[in-house]
Amino acid sequence: MKSVTRNLLALSAVLGLLFPFVALADSGKEHGSGTGMTMEPSMGQMEAAPPKQQQPTLKADLPSLLAEVERLRKEVAELNAIRPTFTGFMPEFSERFHVMHFAGDAGDWAVANHEAKELDRLLAVAQVIDPQKGKLMRAFMGDILKKLDDAIVHGDKAAFGKQLGEMVQRCNACHVAVGSPFIRVSVDVPPDQTPRHPHILTKQRATEHPHMN
């Protein structure tokens, strides 16, 4: 009887030692994918994980770096030498303005619309060439171009003529502001003296221009 009792006590002690580990294993099975226990990856999962890539080592000696700096300096100097000037940029703006003018007079709103959008794009270019003058040009021209665009889209010849006259005044006022009052814009000139970019003008409605998107 005493030996049985001793055996039972020993078994109880062993079970008492094993119980926390059994409970821990059961908890991991129930909650491994939720909050609580996080199961360790199996050997198969560890083997399937992709190996970490090593970062490339930058190898550059001082002479190579100095040569690259010199090359970049030369390239920047060459680009600056051919950088557009504001006076070189203005003829394109003027040309497109007059093409728009003659297109509107002819009722060719498709061509007029194209040129009006190009004029708006050139206002952004002007700010890159010369931030100060470009900003001034945008202030003089931005709102009037929007009104011209609206007249063109609606094919409103009367409104177009009115806004065109306003734009001429804005151009000349801008020239005065930058110290070039002797440069005067007018729409009262023969067509063959103004647009250097000839167009065949016919009656067309304003349309979208996919190549400008």
Q: Would you kindly provide a written description of the structure presented here, covering whatever features stand out?
A:
The longest helix has 30 residues, at 2-31. Residues 1-15 and 17-41 have low confidence and may be disordered. 66% of the residues lie in helices and 0% in strands. The radius of gyration is 39 Å and the shape is elongated. The protein starts with a helix and ends in a 36-residue tail after the last helix. Helix 4 (86-105) packs antiparallel against helix 5. The chain has a domain at 86-182: Cytochrome c/b562 (Four Helix Bundle (Hemerythrin (Met), subunit A)). It has seven helices and no strands. The protein is mainly α.
Short account of what is shown:
This protein is mainly α and 213 residues long. It has a domain at 86-182: Cytochrome c/b562 (Four Helix Bundle (Hemerythrin (Met), subunit A), Up-down Bundle).
Q: Please give the share of residues in helix.
A: 55-70%
What radius of gyration results from the CA coordinates? 39 Å
Intertermini distance: 99 Å
CATH superfamily of one domain: Cytochrome c/b562
> Secondary-structure element sequence?
HHHHHHH
By secondary-structure content and strand pairing, the structural class works out as mainly alpha
Q: Low-confidence segments, ≥5 residues, pLDDT <50?
A: 1-15, 17-41
Task: Describe the sheet with the most strands.
Answer: none
Shape: elongated
* CATH fold node name of one domain: Four Helix Bundle (Hemerythrin (Met), subunit A)
Strand share of the residues? under 5%
Query: What is the residue-averaged pLDDT?
Result: 76
CATH domain class name of one domain = Mainly Alpha
